[in-house]
Amino acid sequence: MIFAVIAIVITIIVIAIIIGKKTYSPESKGERGENRVAKILGDTISGEQYVINDLLFQNENGQSCQIDHIFINKFGIWVIETKNYTGNIYGQEDQREWTQVLAYGNEKNKFYNPIKQNATHIYHLSNYLKVKNVFINVVVFLSHADITNIVSNNVYSIYELPTIKNQTTNITLSIDKMEYYYNKLLELKNNATITKNEHIENIYKIQQQIQQGICPRCGGKLVLRNGKYGQFYGCSNFPNCKFKKRIE
Fold first, then answer.
1. What are the residue boundaries of the structural domains of the chain, listed by start?
2. 197 in the Ramachandran plot: left (φ > 0), alpha (ψ -120 to 50) or beta?
3. How far apart are CA 185 and CA 55, in angstroms?
4. Order of strands across the sheet with 135-141?
5. What is the mean pLDDT of the chain?
6. Which pTM does this prediction carry?
7. Interval 149-170: pLDDT, tens
């Protein structure tokens, strides 16, 4: 009897550990953040707004792309990247990497600039829809992050997200255009054959391509260029592709 009770207790502990790992895993944390943003954006309302969440697809070069949210209204196509981070976030719009500071400054983590990450998403969407100058690059941090040290007009806290619905731009889309772009992107989502695990594998392949001097957006060659702030690697297909890589 005692052994049976001990076995049950051990089983419960093991299950709790497994559930805990899933609950606090980066993937689960990211999904919770994306769910909160999706709730604020709301559902598609014909003629007013169109929403697509978690768009995963492959481009014509076989590269995969995962976009957290797309919000379409008469002011443009808002491409939204969600970050469920904690701590103080430091970064500027043109920097390749930003910094997350935790534990009162004792822990610092680098991560790829989400504005640049989202710019790649927009590049692929632009090629697919065959249109430019209708996209707005938006990065949303959840409430646990202090973003006061980020220098960019593209970054919002989740509390500011509702303002997007009423924020005017220099873009004007007719109802027909909104519906056209929405249906094209919905078709792309519904016809996707790639899995999230395959997408993660593709991310590693892209990192290897960059190390080999290959542009991760269009497959062009990365060539050394001179810029305002010194030398950098840029895509040989510029200006059609504006990918840049800072010299480490």
1. 2-211, 213-248
2. alpha
3. 8
4. 50-58, 64-73, 76-83, 135-141, 155-157
5. 85
6. 0.74
7. 999 999 999 999 998 888 999 9
